[in-house]
């Protein structure tokens, strides 16, 4: 196995997606983790990976070899009519990886602290949205100058440190009702959030993880 040079890395937790319930439920896992993408030396394809922060780059729990154009990485969100901001219809910031070729889904929750001035845990900041756009462009096979894209991400409101961890304590209830009515869904019905508990503090890794956000 050759060297791994991640193109982008950011804090995110992995979720269980339970389709046996009606409506389907998402259960965020408390494990501190990283999402990272890299280009394989042998196949020259993008690898979409998730690993616990305690694991090395070579020990991902999820390693998906992505065919260009097959994967779609989008935030699970709804527009609030009053201020046109982007909010999650859940009580956390959720991203979903879908596929054109199958009905499979992988669900993740952002583990950096919310940048909202009042600490709204379901609010997607410009930084969060930009991260999703970068990942999605890479999955489409686009050439992306990640460092340039990252440098254009606006800072958090009131100077908040966006690298602090969200401990997940807010994600204890069921779904958040949007002001505009029923929320977009992963399958049918509403998205529910379980209790990911407290993820605790983990030290920030350096160097090896490419363009870090």
Care to describe what's here?
- The protein is mainly β.
- It contains 2 helices and 12 strands.
- β9 and β10 (105-110) form a beta hairpin.
- The longest helix has 14 residues, at 126-139.
- Residues 156-161 and 169-208 have low confidence and may be disordered.
Write the layout of secondary structure elements.
Elements: E1 8-18, E2 25-28, E3 33-39, E4 46-52, E5 62-66, E6 71-75, E7 78-79, E8 86-87, E9 94-99, E10 105-110, H1 126-139, H2 146-151, E11 192-193, E12 211-212
Query: Which structural class matches the secondary elements?
Result: mainly beta
The count of strands amounts to: 12
How widely separated are the two ends? Answer: 26 Å
Number of helices: 2
Shape: globular
Biggest sheet descriptor: 10 strands, mixed
What is the helix fraction of residues, given as a range?
under 10%
Order of helices and strands: EEEEEEEEEEHHEE
Average pLDDT confidence is: 74
What proportion of the residues form beta strands (DSSP E)? 25-35%
Multimeric organization: single chain
Q: Segments where pLDDT lies below 50 for 5+ residues?
A: 156-161, 169-208
Rg, please?
17 Å
């Amino acid at each position: 196995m050759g060297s791994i040079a991640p193109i982008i890395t950011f804090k995110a937790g992995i979720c269980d997606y339970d389709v046996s319930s009606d409506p389907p439920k998402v259960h965020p896992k408390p494990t501190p983790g990283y999402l990272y993408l890299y280009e394989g030396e042998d196949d020259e394809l993008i690898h979409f990976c998730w690993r616990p922060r305690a694991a090395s780059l070579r020990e991902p729990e999820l390693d998906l070899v992505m065919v260009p154009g097959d994967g779609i990485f989008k935030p699970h969100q709804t527009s609030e009519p009053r201020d046109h901001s982007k909010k999650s219809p859940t009580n956390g910031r959720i991203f979903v990886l879908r596929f054109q070729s199958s009905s499979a889904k992988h669900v993740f929750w952002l583990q950096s602290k919310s940048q909202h001035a009042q600490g709204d845990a379901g609010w997607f900041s410009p930084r969060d949205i930009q991260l999703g756009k970068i990942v999605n462009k890479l999955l489409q096979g686009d050439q992306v100058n990640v460092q340039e894209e990252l440098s254009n991400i606006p800072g958090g409101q009131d100077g908040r440190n966006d690298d602090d961890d969200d401990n997940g304590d807010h994600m204890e209830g069921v779904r958040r009702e949007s002001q505009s009515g029923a929320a977009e869904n992963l399958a049918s019905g509403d998205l529910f959030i379980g209790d990911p508990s407290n993820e605790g503090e983990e030290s920030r890794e350096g160097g090896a993880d490419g363009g870090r956000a």
